[in-house]
Amino acid sequence: MERCAARRAPEEERRLRANAREYNEKFQYASNCIKTSKYNIVTFLPVNLFEQFQEVANTYFLFLLILQLIPQVSSLSWFTTIVPLVLVLSITAVKDATDDYFRHKSDNQVNNRQSQVLIGGALRQEQWMNVRVGDIIKLENNQFVAADLLLLSSSEPHGLCYIETAELDGETNTKVRQAIPVTSELGDTSKLARFDGEVICEPPNNKLDKFGGTLYWKENKYPLSNQNMLLRGCVLRNTEWCFGLVIFAGPDTKLMQNSGRTKFKRTSIDRLMNTLVLWIFGFLVCMGVILAIGNAIWEHEVGVCFQIYLPWDEGVHSAFFSGFLSFWSYIIILNTVVPISLYVSMGSVTLSPEVRTVEVIRLGHSYFINWDKKMYCAKCRTPAEARTTTLNEELGQVEYIFSDKTGTLTQNIMVFSKCSVNGHSYGDVQDVLGHKAELGERPEPVDFSFNPLADPEFQFWDPSLLEAVKLGDPHVHEFFRLLSLCHTVMSEEKSEGELYYKAQSPDEGALVTAARNFGFVFQSRTPKTITVHELGRAITYQLLAILDFNNIRKRMSVIVRSPEGKIRLYCKGADTILLERLHPVNQDLANVTTDHLNEYAGEGLRTLVLAYKDLEESYYEDWSERLHQASGAPDAREDRLARLYNEVENDMMLLGATAIEDKLQQGVPETIAILTLANIKIWVLTGDKQETAVNIGYSCKMLTDDMTEVFVVTGHTVLEVRQELRKAREKMMDASRSVGNGFSYQEKLSSKLTSVLEAIAGEYALVVNGHSLAHALEADMEVEFLETACACKAVICCRVTPLQKAQVVELVKKYKKAVTLAIGDGANDVSMIKTAHIGVGISGQEGIQAVLASDYSFSQFKFLQRLLLVHGRWSYLRMCKFLCYFFYKNFAFTMVHFWFGFFCGFSAQTVYDQYFITLYNIVYTSLPVLAMGIFDQDVPEQRSMEYPKLYEPGQLNLLFNKREFFICIAQGIYTSVLMFFIPYGVFADATRDDGAQLADYQSFAVTVATSLVIVVSVQIGLDTGFWTAINHFFIWGSLAVYFAILFAMHSDGLFQMFPNQFRFVGNAQNTLAQPTVWLTIALTTVVCIMPVVAFRFLKLDLKPQLSDTVRYTQLVRKKQKAQHRCMRRVGRTGSRRSGYAFSHQEGFGELIMSGKNMRLSSSALSSFAARPGAGWMETLRKKKGSDGGTAGSPGAAPNKV
Amino acid sequence: SNVFMYYGLSNFYQNHRRYVKSRDDSQLNGDNSSLLNPSKECEPYRTNEDKPIAPCGAIANSMFNDTLELYRIDNNTKTPITLIKKGIAWWTDKNVKFRNPTGDGNNLTALFQGTTKPVNWPKPVYMLDLEPDNNGFINEDFIVWMRTAALPTFRKLYRLIERKNNLQPTLQAGKYSLDIAYNYPVHSFDGRKRMILSTISWMGGKNPFLGIAYITVGSICFFLGVVLLIIHHKYGNRNTSADIPN
Question: In whole angstroms, what is the distance from residue B16 CA to residue A908 CA?
Fold first, then answer.
């Protein structure tokens, strides 16, 4: 990829001219060639080695190796270090090489894609990498955009152009881009070839939703915005062709600028490990120093005199220098205490010899997650996927979950579920129990076969509604007529009878689809008409006006003229608004309907009230005239329109109400309940409206009516927000003071609580609005906000931007020292997913951006409980047990050298054979602990779900912390003391059974090594809580392998070949044949293990952990029936949370009336084009801006979160 | 049964790293090239006056060379006790690990041609004993010495005293005298020499440590068992499912 130019200094602004390569070349902008690969064949070896030796661990091993090559220092032969080092380096190199090969391949593929470039007035096929800044290229439908382009013109009217940005931000809905009017005329190549506009714009950056620049052409200035840009990575849709001017190419494109290195996440255990490794390193140096001083003293006192038999090494002339050398010798032999391989450095986990075990264990856990059938979604055929393999144990420590709403908690599928027409409620499932049962238990759905236009996917369970339609109930007919007329849905008839609705919000889609199935089929619309098939008859209504939805009105209306000539206004909207605008004669009906609404709201449904009003011809004429004036008015247009709308939407006649189910993902309330029991706090962060969010909060049981209070913070200024927060806290404090008497209050204040507020009695919830959140997240208020929020059981933040989501996560991370998990499915969750300790992506309908950024992905929210309570919990447990054991065995192994030092003149003589030292960690003890680390479980998975409290030790970090670490170290050191001094005591005077001395060095080494292997094997047996065949195989196998290797190494054959390497010849059979040796080994084992057994026994009796109790109960009552933990479906009353819950956008009414988004004949179009409201595009943009603008990020598409 | 005669040394660091590695097992295994070109590990006892030392290294050089002789004193007459000097080394050491260099004939003097004796030795290695199967590198005293001790105070088997008949003890009660030919200096480093006579059982010589340790550990285990039993009886039944909070 040498073709790709090197980088230059950052530019201040970009200046380029169309069709002028020579002119643009002098700026040396990056070409469109991308390079993500790191090496080529020549540079691979040096660069890769250089990178690898930047790893602390590798350098450390190299350093040790060098030390071992110094004869005066070498206390171990060099191969004990070089073999693992070479192994590690080559494995890593091979891995890097393969990775890079694939990067080369994908670079090549992308760089060689074809695109049509306008060169010299003609279109030429060019490879992507040859596209230059300032070129004009032609794109065709479904092609990838080759670089960041300024849209010049397109096949569509007004220079419109549709793109899909899935690869960029994960959103799969098509977006509109528009060329600026002056260039949209440039439809053919000859005109374009003459185009010589000059663009001055911002330098390359990674902001996907912003662009600022100016086009200078023909002495005029035209401002450019993101609305005119086509970014690399987008795909052109529904547009035959378009032309664009290359602004940014290759590495400068926003896509490439965004593909920064993902931040490497480490678990809290990793971070703890880094500290511990440093401590151990310090400990190692201390021991080295002690032994070095010992050596200096010994050489000074004894060694000097002993020189007749053992002269000092050449070059060693003083005891001090000898001590100095022995320091390094001891560093070499004691370095096995430093689990340097566990040291995570510089963004990647170091591969290293003794333990790839940690990686293997984590990988194993990841595979368990990937293979978990219970986390496999059969419907969408997606298994759970652990995309990061290094975070598993952190899943067992999660304290805060930040969840997106749409697509995560909910399916983003709206279902018309119930309705109330003229005081009669329809839609209850005719089930004996009266509550909604799971699919399959339901009776047959209503048969819509009478209606050829019905949507086959629509299901309704109450046949009486259809009967009412068939019987011709006028109210029901009017009800569905309203639904088929009053909306902004577009229809598309792909083939005869096959209708597709393009709804702007799923709620509307659901309503129109319901009407369609009940025989009121909305078929097509023109800017002035709506055609509806009413029970088989096509009727065309004249569309007189759309009184569009907005956030304040919370309703929308249409005014239509029926074929008979009657003018009628149809209105649907939030009940709170609409019920006040009814004609007084509706009072009784309104009361009944209100009851129904309460009922629906209690089930968590989103409700709407429908009403109509007949208008007099004359009144309408007058009103319409005034409307025309108002919309043409230059000032206060909005206000005047609103007033007019208000005026006409009055004294309406109530038709009924609809209830839409915002379908939750399966098992969401249950999951939330269990996670709450596990002491995990769940915060919902959604871009949706407050009403919707709160509604979902209720339906997924985060909020309940049992809660003492739900605080809502909606202040617009800093002061208001502060006051609201303060008020909330005061209320909580007051309540807890009055409820809890002093004693219990004190008791609740356990040491873990960081704030008094956490001891609040009663359940509270906090709902924060986006604009308030912006203030609450400011530096001086964030702590206040956090304290309030953490005192609440549930927190819902609505209308938040992606950036704010990340900020909230960051806030909790910063002050709470707790593990956070973010779960979401859309592109707007990416920042949150990346920020949290653990990011989970729901692989759903909203593209794959979230999944790509996530560490774990699966398709259903409910799998989260399994991921955390089962996999996470086990992973944490296993990792902790593994680490404890790991430190224990290494200390037990290494510290023996320390004690021996006092008896061998501090000469750094090893206790063991050098092969034992090489193999101890790799072969003899690695597999059993690996098996434990992978398979261990304390309680079976059903119990983890049954007793969510079992999750708590992980959150409190109880299983592996500094205290546990010191206990393990202490146990290791204790073992090492016995391991040395018991054989010492025995050997001091012992002789063999044939009279020869027993206490020779080699026999001693074999005895200590054998007892060590046996003791650590017994210990792992004690630690293993869950025995699988593999555990047995590995533990017994390791022992067998130990003896096999021992005898092999001490065999005649090897000695004959390499007498100087295998000096222990004949030692195994001679030593292990001695009863004394076995008595020693037995004694050592018992003395090492007995205190552990006693201690554990006592702990079990006196201070049992919950998991111990659960295990015990399970043993005692194996047939105990699983405690039935059914979720109460609380039949809530009151507190109606109806709202105009549409995730609706204003402006579509105008769009429809203008007809711009319809493919009409040009004549039809031109008749509408001149309408006064033609500025719909601007309106739309303005609304978008003001919706997301509250937090300064217009990128939050308001209609999806 | 047989009585075993040991010499003991204390404060002698046979387990010092520099000492332990100062040998060439290849040379000791009879490798001719190593005989004439010993391993560097043997420094500074690798060569002497440009001749390779056989056996090289500090271990061999410091071989214990006092001679001990035991006499029974019966009515003022000294009867020497037969001390057997073969069978004191491990079989594998004598037959596998240590071998004399090979060549034409069995003349050790010729085989060791070109080498010189260790500095401290009075005689070269091929004059350690008169019997050919106990001479050179396979001299058992030498082999025993070369099996370095694990601890600075150690004993090494020196001679066997065989039991003559089953009716009398090997060494009858009475007066004995020990004659020591004093060649081996230990004063300089504050060392001590001992001579030990011992019989053995199935688990070797007298070794009180193991017995005491076993009794102690056994008692502790028993005591601990009782205490734990009591504790379990008193507090253990707290373990019921009723305790499981939720």
Answer: 8
